[in-house]
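Lab notebook, bench 4. The sequencing result for the construct came back, and we need a structural model before the next group meeting so we can plan mutations. Quick request posted to the team channel:

Model the 3D structure of this chain.
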Amino acid sequence: MERRTVLGVGLAVAGWWAAGTGPAEATLSATGGGRLREADVAAARGLFTAGEYGRLRQALGLLTARAREAGGAGPVGAGRAVRVWVLVSQLAVKDGDVALAAAFAAQAEEAARRSGRPVLLAAAARAAATPLRRTGRAGHALQLLQDAHDQLDAVAAPSADVLDASGMVALTAAYTAAQARQHAAAEEFAALAEQSAQRLAHPSTGAPRGGDLSVGQCTLYRIGIHRELGDVDRALAYAARLDVAVLPTPERRARAATDTARALLAADDVPAAFAELQRVEQAALQEARRPSVRALTAEAAARRPDLPGITAFARRTAPPRSRTT
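Done. Here's the predicted structure in token form:
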């Protein structure tokens, strides 16, 4: 990445997320002696998956500074930096800033190449795919994801990490293909992800496993995939099949409710869509305040202003006036 782009990203972090030193940043600064440690990355990821985006923003200045240093400190440091840049790109997507999400995804790709790990290259590809498809470049995103999946698929004896990464890349590719109305490709990638999820499942022991891929995750993605393909009935069938309790984080449970709300609005079932939007708030309040989710709330309120509680809900989930982001 050119120096001016790196500097621009640094200024964006300083300006867009400037919230001073808060509890999350204070905790981060108390560990690691100025170095980016695994515990720092895990703590930041934990805030994201809990839907605690405000607390995560408090730590971003310090976290990204450490990631920049770690990125040039060898493969291990570069690997940790990848995970930070991917996380911050995902947070930018949550806030609807596609350009900044793309800039952070580019930093993730650069660090991933230095790490030399296909799993991290796949994570960077997934981060890059979202801003690409949101700016009308779904074909480019799909090729990037296909290349990442092919590289992982070439591993002779894939570990759990490789299977997890392969499945998640396939899910992202399936959703991207669906947005491009490539029905066959969407179905093929979704099926590949489901195969990887089945390989990772341990029904006999019930042993916990790290990673993001699961049968429940695949079902969640199917809701959005089929809604994008225009098959709302099938999307809602997957929504009915999904046991939200198996989704491990508030962020994922909020995503399930959001995707179901979109499908229900497409099916003209506004009361049920409003019920799902309330579940978003219950799972993670800050998810309900995201621009894209507020747009769903506004649509539901415009179509059925008579629904009890919908006006109060819209007011309650508006961003606090004091927010500086």
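Confidence is low (pLDDT under 50) at residues 1-12, 14-26, 203-208.
Will bring this to the meeting.
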